[in-house]
Specification:
The chain is an alpha+beta fold. It has one domain. Helix content is about 50%, strand content about 15%. It is built from two helices and four strands; from the N terminus they run αββββα. It has a four-stranded antiparallel beta sheet, with no helix packed on it. A hairpin with a 2-residue loop joins strand 1 and strand 2. Helix 1 crosses helix 2. The longest helix has 30 residues.
Length: about 100
Amino acid sequence: MKRFGRSSLCISLGLGICATCLSVLIHRDVTYAGEATFGGGWPLVFLVDQPGVSVTGRLTLLEDVIYPMAFALDVLFWAAAFWFVGAGSRRLRRLRLNR
């Protein structure tokens, strides 16, 4: 933790939140309350279109169902991905400088 610092962790977390919010654009078919509908989010669906309540075919935070645990896991997934990419690039840069 001390090696890469808190700043890289905070940047990775911020990028993870942004990537999770943008992943809503990836729609997948799901079943909600016995009805076929669609949801947004990747790798886990965390926003599901609520049939009969919201505008059909449109995902919004105010009218649709949000699964906070799936959202948190998506943020952790993306933050870890960004952190590992950053750590790997720093390591490769250091190895090239030491040649």
